[in-house]
Design brief:
It is a single chain. The protein has nine helices and nine strands. Strands 2, 3, 4, 7, 8 and 9 form a six-stranded parallel sheet that branches. Helix 4 packs parallel to helix 5. The protein folds into two domains: 33 residues, no CATH class; 199 residues, Glycoside hydrolase/deacetylase (TIM Barrel), CATH 3.20.20.370. Strand 2, helix 2 and strand 3 form a beta-alpha-beta unit. It is α/β, with parallel strands linked by helices. The structure holds zinc ion. Zinc ion (ZN) binds next to loops. Zinc ion binds next to loops.
Length: 257
């Protein structure tokens, strides 16, 4: 009787408080129609239950990972690959699935041998605005295209613009991915009229374990990076740095505590 009485009192109190008061918590507080969507429950509990999200690796070794996003595209991808071959430097390419489907000849035949490829989604839309099913489709289609065209499965993904949501992490976990951001972006805009300056700037800014963001397609100001790529690689090496792929860089990370 006592318990029932307490319950009745509590229920009445909640009812009174809720009347006319703003609803603080509800099932649809996020503005779904405005573009956001909740992450949703995962269908299956994954083995990891978490996703590693990395923007640099805390190491004292002078290692650096150069990354190129948004290819493959006919404008600069072949040039970037040729330059990297000349200077014998590995890089990591975050590929857009639709681009790979449109230009498989830019990737087939071992052109990416020695480099790592990662998933940069199918259409390069904003993952932060997608629910889990949409995010999963964006990543899965790109993943499958990379497997089909290159015969290898990526282990890492980079969300376009670095935008992501809880749904992104769950979808990435389903594919066993690490999510890779960056710690240093090529400052193309600042060197359009002083192209070679980008070499000194990149070498000046680099730190051990850095992940450097560049692009192998896009607006013409990015050509500053492409035109100076050999100089950038040589400059980093002259400063004592070894270029590695992102996965090689991750492997150098100290064991998690
Ligand atoms: Zn991108």
């Amino acid at each position: 009787m006592i318990a029932g009485g307490v319950g009745a009192v509590g229920g009445a109190a909640v009812g009174v408080a809720a009347e006319g008061a703003p609803k603080l918590f509800g099932p649809h507080r996020l503005p779904i129609d405005g573009g956001y969507a909740p992450a949703g429950n995962p269908d299956v509990y994954s083995a990891r239950g978490s996703v590693r999200c990395v923007y640099h690796v805390p190491t004292t070794e002078k290692l650096v990972a150069l990354t190129f996003d948004d290819g493959p595209m006919p404008d600069w991808t072949p040039r970037v690959l040729a330059t990297l071959r000349e200077v014998d430097a590995p890089a990591t390419f975050f590929l857009i699935g639709e681009h790979l489907r449109a230009y498989p000849q830019l990737a087939k035949g071992g052109l990416y041998d020695g480099h790592e490829v990662g998933n940069h989604t199918w259409t390069h839309d904003d993952l932060a605005m997608m629910d889990r099913d949409a995010a999963r489709t964006e990543m899965r289609r790109c993943h499958d295209q990379i497997v089909q065209t290159l015969g290898r499965a990526p282990k890492i993904m980079r969300p376009p613009w670095g935008h992501m949501a809880g749904s992104t992490l769950i979808a990435a976990d389903e594919l066993g991915y690490d999510v890779i951001l960056w710690s240093q972006r090529m400052p193309e805009n600042e060197y359009v009229h002083n192209p070679s300056g980008i070499v000194d700037r990149t070498v000046r800014d680099v730190r051990p374990g850095a992940i450097i963001l560049a692009h192998d397609t896009g607006p013409s100001d990015r050509l500053v990076t492409i035109a100076n790529l050999a100089g950038i690689v040589n400059g980093l090496r002259a400063a004592g740095y070894k270029l590695v792929t992102v996965s090689q860089l991750l492997a150098s990370a100290p064991a998690p505590v």
